[in-house]
Amino acid sequence: MRFILFLLLLSLIQAEQKLRFVQIWFRHGERTPTNYLSFPTDPPVDIDKLPSNKGELTQTGINQEYTLGQTFKEEYGEFLGEYKSDKIVVHTGEDNRTIVSGQAMLAGLFPPKVRVIADLPWQPIPIHSRGNLDEVSFGIIGECEGLEKKVKENPRYQGMMDKIDPSLLEILRNKTGLPIEDPYQYQNVLDSLKTKYSLNSTALPFPQWALPLAPALNNYSTEIHTQMTHLLNESSGGFHADILLSSIEQQLLLPTRKAFFISGHDTNLFVLGQFFRAKVLTADLCKYAAHLAIEVYEDTTVPVTPDSITIKFFYSYNLTAPREEVTIPACEEPCTLGKMQKITEGKRWSERRWRDFCEKGEDTNGEKETIGNGVLTGSLLIAVAILVLTSIVLLYLTCSYRKQLEALRDPEQRPLIS
Ligand SMILES: *[C@@H]1O[C@H](CO)[C@@H](O)[C@H](O)[C@H]1NC(C)=O
Ligand SMILES: *[C@@H]1O[C@H](CO)[C@@H](O)[C@H](O)[C@H]1NC(C)=O
Ligand SMILES: *[C@@H]1O[C@H](CO)[C@@H](O)[C@H](O)[C@H]1NC(C)=O
Ligand SMILES: *[C@@H]1O[C@H](CO)[C@@H](O)[C@H](O)[C@H]1NC(C)=O
Ligand SMILES: *[C@@H]1O[C@H](CO)[C@@H](O)[C@H](O)[C@H]1NC(C)=O
Ligand SMILES: *[C@@H]1O[C@H](CO)[C@@H](O)[C@H](O)[C@H]1NC(C)=O
């Protein structure tokens, strides 16, 4: 009896999941406003006194990301070990702040064990920029020509203005001197206010008139991004879900791979939250240096199949917030890769499909991808070759029959004795 209990216990222990790799989406650090450093009604800003150029990280922002890297080291340092190029992949947007954030984070996560550069406790680690991480929520504007046009024509887009408290709009228009005629401009005004409020810098002062609005700015901002991301949930959400899942699928094939980092924006996490209906991610836009860690576990006692791979999600709303486990309503525990694949079946958007949609504003359904697919191209080639060969043979046969026919008809060539 005791032996059986022991065996049971042993099997329980053995069935324990082993961390296979981790995927982390994180937001850049503190930055200056992306659009309005000042409003038309403000005194001009002294560019030389700015903490950084427009939309770039501040020194605080860089330090936040460095600290974030140290936090990751605390959490995963033992698992990751020393830096090796086959262990990790880092993707960032093309926005400078996401690139700089990736670099600062890596400085905190992988300080070299021995000096690589004599004077500097730092080692260079490659990062890869992909602009499609910036094409999210209002980030499509100015980046996605076709989609921007389509969105602006969509009645739901203009309708977003009708949902804004008219007295709020009146105050904003009056005090900023901006017409604020579309949701994009409205969001940029909010962003400028929100950013300046948290910067608390004398070089970019928060306007006195906006003080009464300060407590509600997050709510307004979350509200407008919620509507914008709902508008693009299927496409942008489907694309984000595909990045998340395809990287898990691909990395399972790479035995030495341990981590995939994505340095992006608050809206990348927000879109994932909308797509998977994870409330905690969409209650509020996350703060600087927030992150979503996706831990992928394998059961070492059974062969690797999508159903034996378990996935856990952890969210940290800001740099210092303790991580909380995120549940995905449609993927009940244990949430496996198999379940994730099932709930996203037919809903994932490949990178190519998103790119076409972004450029043209039309869903090509990744058509080109299927045609460009190796197997299909191969069989197409064979089919064409067969067709051409058959035509040649037929043509030859027809010609030779015709010759014989003509020869028969031609009196000159008729055999003399018939
Ligand atoms: C990035 O920095 C360059 C200058 O180095 C600047 O011209 C550009 O506007 C910045 N772009 C973004 C998207 O951050
Ligand atoms: C808008 O500005 C005008 C004149 O500058 C002022 O009379 C009016 O009260 C302002 N309205 C609001 C809502 O601030
Ligand atoms: C803003 O900075 C000033 C000093 O410049 C400080 O006294 C004040 O407490 C800060 N406010 C906030 C909200 O951090
Ligand atoms: C903003 O506040 C309003 C009113 O309190 C609330 O109904 C709404 O859900 C809030 N929106 C967000 C996105 O938090
Ligand atoms: C977004 O799309 C996914 C996939 O169709 C769906 O499951 C989810 O409920 C949608 N989210 C929202 C907020 O509509
Ligand atoms: C970070 O988030 C936690 C949890 O939401 C909150 O309690 C804390 O005040 C936040 N810290 C900062 C600096 O915003």
TrEMBL record:
Keywords: Membrane, Signal, Transmembrane, Transmembrane helix. InterPro entries: His_Pase_clade-2, His_PPase_superfam, Histidine_acid_phosphatase. One of its GO terms (molecular function) is phosphatase activity. The keyword Transmembrane applies. The keyword RNA-binding does not apply. Residues 1-15 form the signal peptide. The chain crosses the membrane at residues 375-399. Pfam families: His_Phos_2. Belongs to the histidine acid phosphatase family. This is Acp-5. The gene is WBGene00305147.
